[in-house]
Structures are given as structure tokens and as C-alpha cells.
Model the fold of this input.
Amino acid sequence: MQYDLLIKDGFLVNGSGLPGYHGDLGVADGKIVAMGKVDGPAREVIDARGLVVAPGFIDVHTHYDAQLFWDPWATPSCWHGFTSVFMTNCGFGLAPCREQDREYITRMLVKVEAMPLESLKAGVPWNWESYGEYLNALDRRLGVNVMALAPHSTIRYHAMGEEARKRHATPEEINAMQSIVADCMEAGAFGFSSSYGPVHFDGDGLPVPSRFAAQDEVVALARTLKDFHRGTVCVIPPGIPKIGSADMDYLARLSRESGRPVVWNLLSQTWDAPDHWRQVLDWTAEAFREGARVHPLALCERFDLTFSLRGAVFEDLPAWRAAIKGSRMQKIANLSDSEIRAAMQRDLDDPTPKVFSKRMQDVFVSAVCRDEHQSLVDKNLVEIGKEQGKTPLEAMLDLAIDENLDTQFLIRGFQNGDEEAVRSLTTNPHVLTGGSDGGAHIAFLCQVTYSTFLLSHWVREKNALTLEQAVRKLSFDPAMLLGVPNRGLLKEGFAADLTIFDLDKVQAKNREFVRDFPGGASRLVARADGYRYTIVNGQVLLRENEPTGVYPGRVLRSYEQ
Ligand SMILES: [Zn+2]
Done:
């Protein structure tokens, strides 16, 4: 047999969790056609001695919906072994969208997923109206494979117009939305996404459309998937779901009534309820026994958050939200006002659990603009406050104002600060590992490193999982759970999506700012060492993590067999 690609002498880890073995792998016509001992003529031979050959990873929660138009590789995901990205999460997408609604949808994405306005304006071609037309527009030049969801907020705005951000839907409007979700499924969507996320606001500072939906509406839309016998329901519940609360019932109901798996994000360890995650996992196991497939999505690493006071932060702290608003001048005026400061302090003293733990000892100065402040870098606000005889809040605001609000702060362990909790989450079989949010929040967040961290930290350094278990978490589990046909395993007949890496060397590099987006926007990215070949549909997309100039990716459709 003539192979397009022959990978020799690798350590084949097939994604099922079964033990890896030394062998070869032959590829023809974009598919894996032979495994084990493989000889024969080949157009290209890859020497994989000392390297792991694994199914390409699937990044399960991303927002590359716009970025893929100017970055068909979906960086930084592709630098971390990912060959497919699952996008249109949280209910936000670019279709269906009429011409007159483009501005609203664009401003919503700018606000809610912190995508740069200048890049969306310069980079999104907007040559579609329906969801199917959008998928086709995207399918013209792709490096990686893409799977998309039907986005609730976008659909709600399409069906209800301005009323979408005012009130509950009528039965007729719910019917209209159900038929749009069905259209999306017919076009190949992999399910439905929605959000009650308390920090999800649109471009006008109003809650996003999906937050105006009654739970019955979300359940009704999820039920649309039932007749298709495919698709996953991906949601953000209201707040952090508490055991025994209506939120947990809601998640179980979504799965039971749709007959489909539910993925909700994000389960993390937080300091205001440090053992809550454990109760959620117990609840999850019980829900499964009773027929509700409800998977928490969890990151496998500590989650640090970088922010400045130039942009919105801690939107669920009312005084903070009110103060950090308007022009830079206006913000500085607000943050200098002693009454406003007192109100912000009251937000911090309020024991009600919020997204930010309010532990000021975890907030560090990460970058300053003025030389005289250099000594503050890597100190936390409690330390700095003590040195300066101020409260931590005063120390933070004085420093930021002194630097025209450009000071960068970092919350260490914003979530997942407890390593043992993260280990349990990472090794739990009900938990879907992921939550990179790739393509979103790019000015201050980069969690795309999770695959690399799983391999370097949890497999190589901590032995918390075997290599085989970790690869399964990144390939077969997401493919199975999200219904990705013929991917996620090394298996004859399956698509040749492969990542070939050196387990001894695989390591995320430090996060860095790059200015490579349309319109000149800058973003936070992290590259990685150790990935040698990234192969999509049988073609080498990246060699040593550099593009080879081919575009083998495509929009996958959930109806494919
Ligand atoms: Zn998201």
C-alpha cells in the first residue's frame, strides 16, 4: 500500500486508556489505515522515535467563532496539541444574524467575551445570515477542525429583537427559537449553548438575552435536540450551583428532558466554599445513576486572573461595577472619591459569595508602568498596604490612579488555588477537562495551556494520571461525550488527527503579550515546547509548532457518520 504519511517507531497511545505500545502508523486519504508494524512506500515518513503518537486533542470550550476568519489555526490552541476546537459556547455566536443585528451581536461579543472591537470590525466578513451560511463561510480556509453549537443569546435576539433583552419569551417565541435551533442542528451543530452567567452583560451593560429566559425556555430549546439523537447541551447555570438548589435540578432536568448529555461550566475550587466541589461530584454521580448525564467542566490547573482597572472587573460587586465605568478620566474620578471607595470596601466586607473571593492577600501587582513602583511587583496588596499604612483596597486604587489605571494586577488562585482539589477534579471520570475559553478574554486570559499542563504536571511530575489516562481525557472522552464522529482514537478508519510530542519536554512557555490581531489589538498567549508534529486530516499542520502552509481543517458536522 502507498501511504501519504508513515509514522515510524512511535509510542502509540490510542486514546482509549489502554496501554500504549511501540509501533508505526500509516495514513492515507486523511485517515488512519494501518497500525502496528507498518512498511511500504510513503510520500512522507516521520521518525517518531522517543515520541508519543496520540489522537489530536479536542479543545472543548472555546470562542474562536470570529478569530478563525483571520487565524485558521486557532492559536494558541493548536500550539498545545489541539487539532479540533469546540466553539460557540455560552450562547454567543455570529449566526443567525441579520444585517441590522450585526452591530448588537458584535458589541455583545466585545463586552461578554472581551474580543477586541477593532479586530471584529476588520476581520469578520459577515457574508451570511443563517447559521448554515455562517458554517459554510468559515469552512473555506481552516487549519484545525471546528465544531459549533447553536447559541441561545444570538438566536433569542434573532427571534425576538430588542424584546430579547427585556422579558420572558411567549410560547410562540419559544416555538420560533426551537425551529432555529433545529435549523442549526440540521446544518450540523453539535448541540445548544446558553448562559445564566451573572457576569455576562451585553454591549449596553444589560444582561445578555439568554439571562432573560425562564428555565422552562432553556429546557424547551434543549429538548429540540431530542429528535435528532445527537448534540450536547452546554450551559452556565445561575451562580455557582449549590447542592439541593433549583440550579442543580435545572441541570438534571436539561439532561432528562433532552435525553442528551449536559456540560456545565465551570466547576472550580473556590475559597468562599472550599469543599463545595466535592459535594458537586457526589451529586453528579447520583444524577448519573438516575439517568441525568450532567458533566461539570473543570480546568486542571490553578486559575490566575490578570486585570487592570481600565476594563470592567468584578461585575457582580455593585459598587465596583458602578465605579469602573465611563471614560478613563471618569473612572479615575470615581476611584478617587472617598464615598465610592467606602462602598467598594463594603462590597469586599460583604460575606455573600461572589466570583472574586475578596481575599486581597491573593491579589498581586504583576506589572507597573513607572520605575518607582517596580519594587511592588510580585507583592500582594495586604503586604503593600501594610508597608504604606493603608488598607489593601486603598493601596490598590492609589497605585492604579498614579499609573493612569495601567497597572496590571494578578489574582493568584482566583479559582483552583487548592492543588489537592484540582487533582481530584482532574482525575474524576464525570468531569470533562477543559474550559480554555480560547478566543475570548484574550487581553487578560490564556488557559489554553491545560492540555500541556495535564501532561507536564499531572502525568510527568505528579503521576496523578498515567499518560494513557491523560490522553484519553484530551481525546476520546471529549469526542465520545460531544459526539464527534470518527475522531478521538487512533484506530483504522478514523480521521488522522494526530499530535506527536516528547513527553519529557512538553511544557507550556510563559504567557506573553503579542500584537498580531487585525486592527492591531494585543492579546495574551502561551506557546509550548515538546510538540513536534500536529497533524489534521492526515496533513502536517504544524512542524515544531510552526505552520507548514496547508489548511487541512474543516467544519465538522454532527450528522456525519
Ligand atoms: Zn465561554
